[in-house]
Structure formats: C-alpha cells, structure tokens
User: Fold this.
Amino acid sequence: MIIKNGKISLIQGTYTFYHYGQGGFNDHQWGCAYRSLQTLYSWFKWQGWTNKPVPSIRDIQQILVDIGDKNKSFVGSSDWIGSMEVSFVLNAHLDVTCRIMSLRQGDTLNSVCLELSEHFDRHGTPVMIGGGVLAHTILGVDINEELDAVKFLVLDPHYTGSDSIKSIHGKGVCWKDASFWKKDTFYNLCLPLMFSKIIPIIKRLLKYYVCHNIYPYDVAQSSQKIGYP
Assistant:
C-alpha cells in the first residue's frame, strides 16, 4: 500500500522480471542476487543500450572469472554473489558504472530514501540491494517527509510462482517499509548510473577521429557518418 500524499519515484522504462527457477534452472536458496542482476541487465537491453542477450547464471560466473574476481572453480558452483559483483558484471559487459551505497543495518534504509528518490528521477534504473544471503530489487520509493513515512517498491527474486502478471502482483512485487530488511545485517545497494553510457561513446568517437585525422570543425559531420546524433 502506498503512502497518503507521498512523493513516488519509480524506475523509468521496461524490464524483465527474473526470479528463482527461471528457465527451469534450479537456483533456489542461492541465486537471488544473480536474478536481480539479470533484471537490471534486462532494463538496459529493453532501453536499447545493448543487443547482447541477458547472461545466464553460468555466464555471469564466467564473466567474474574472466575479469579476475573469482577463481575458475566458481563457474558451475552455487556460490552467492553480492552488490559488488553485480556492479563488476554491468561494468565489464555494458560499460555501466554503478554507485555502491552501504548501510550498517537494513532497517536504516530510510536514511537514504531521498538519494534513492533522486536516483529514480535522474537515472531511472532499478536498484539491487543485498545483505547476508538475501538480495532484492528496488523499483521505486514513496516518501512523505511530513509524516516521516517511507515505502519501497520491492521486486522479489525469491518468487517461485508463474510468470502471469496476476500472480506476480500478488506475490512477486510489493510495497515494503524498512523493517522488511534485517536490522542486524550489513547491506550494500548497487545503483546503475545512466550517464556512464556516454563514456564508451566518447571513446569510440575519439578513436574514429584519430584514425581518420578528423579535426574539431569536422566533428558534427563525422558524427552523422557513423550514426550518432
């Protein structure tokens, strides 16, 4: 239930909900952070930022091995990942930079509610939160500062029901307050930043300019040649 007279900030755009058992793969009890990562990745795919397919859990593990974060034995295991690994994969595969926010305990999430609201309004990307052995995806925040009331729209990767909208609305997504997270557990939040996408584009443009000996007065014309507005 939303808050009366609250300010609601939500993700902008489309995503695919990934959860336990997706595609017939048994990841119960350990795959929630992978599923949250897949949901975040799908957001970028739906917005047209990449043509790459959403990586499988095994693909994610291989990416982490390839970048040197994990040992080879990690591939094919049931080992958990956290917010840092989520940010590593998004950066390595999509050139997306993520902001990591840390909380000493989950029930203090209200302390960063305004920053989350700004994130959704400015960047519009879903947020992964992980602590202990649990991970969730945050899709929005509802704030009434006068009442000191805050709710978070949570997409739950632990969901095991059907992929019907009716079933998901009943069990897979819900407004929660900060008490939903454990007060005795440290949490990290992974916030993908949209403006980071401009960095690889600039690099590609500069490489093109250097290779073709293009000078500043040719920039506008050359951008059109290689398909940039």
Q: What stands out?
A: Helices lie at 32-46, 57-66, 83-94, 113-122, 165-171, 198-211, 219-225.
